[in-house]
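Course assignment 3, question 2. Fill in each field.
Student: A.L.
Task: Predict the tertiary structure for the chain below.
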Amino acid sequence: MDRHLLHNLGIKKLFAFDWWLAGICFARAFTGFVFMTYAAALPILQKEWGMSATAGGSISSGFSIGYAVSLVVFSILADIVGPKRLYLVSMSAGAVLSLAFAIFARDYFSALILYTLVAVSLGGTYTTGVMILADHYPVQRRGMAIGFFIASTSLGYALSLVLSGIALPVGGYKLSFLLTCLGPLVGSILAWITLMTTQVSATRREKQQRFAKEVLGNRPAMLLIGSYTFHSWELLGMRAWTPAFLASCLVFGGAKGLQAAGLGSYINALFHVTGLLASFSMGMLSDRLGRARVILMLSGLSAVCSFIFGWTIGWPLILVIGIGMIYAFSSLGDSPVFSAALTEVVETSYIGAAFGLRSLLGFGAGALAPLAFGVILDWTNPTGSGMQFNGWGWAYSILGLGGLGAVMTAHILGTIQTKSKYAA
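Answer field:
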């Protein structure tokens, strides 16, 4: 066949894959709207529903716990049933329950129950998506593909926060809930259209394979899971409370109630755009420099930011935003690197099980982080409430301990991989 014809066919195939990846990523982005629905409105809800910081954090924790349990179940089932079917079922269920949350969540208890159910329904949209991508892309392009997938989550968060920033001053939390909770419906439709004709390879476990050997006895895999657990503590705690922190910074500077919440959402949206850039750029960088090296670099930077960020209230807003952008970049940039790395060190037939364990530990820790943050916030601000907290430094510093843990485990992983490389 003519060389130019082969080249043209290769170009067409590349663009076909790009459109397919775009479909998966935009479905993820729209579904991501609901993940920020509550966090964006938290400073308003604390006042209208009469919640303490501990109660406010418990709803975010309920969401994270529900998501963690669901991720474990869906991840284990994905090795048996196949990821595509579970992914589409989860996307559809998430669309229905997100709308239920928007319509019926009107106080602390209804929000706690419904938002937790939303999380449970969406637990089948992450690991299964990563498994579908791993099936379609070779190792040398997998960091790029998963990077774009996770970057699309940040895009969804950013768009959700922009919508909340518009809706909160106009129609309060009810309008904000409704607009952002329509996202999963759009995402579900896109997912069905994109995957309608996609075939995903079936996996088969050999008789000699066991979970204890392939996952628990796999030291690189367990180090990655441990590092991800520390990473999740820091990231999910930061993500749950940063909109409220920014609102407090704006109130400290003279902004009022709903205006501060709206502006805080806009600034936090900028942080998620920064995280979007981090996800696909660091995913591609890890294809070149190695997974452990990139994780070590980003975890160290995010830990430093955790120990600094909360103390910046009262600083010039431009400095708060600048540090926040670095924080967002470093805390999210290693997410696709963790996922790509785990698919490479675990046998294909146990990828779902490995992600299930990672989800249990990672999102379990991430579920406790917003609650611990809220407890420390109440403790260090005995007379504060809503957007009137002035002391945030200690609450953010507790998140920095997770960053330090990720640095330690990533360093050990890198040392093992370096020794293995020279031994080979």
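Instructor remarks: Residues 139-181 form the longest helix (43 residues). DSSP finds 16 helices and no strands in the chain.
Grade: pending
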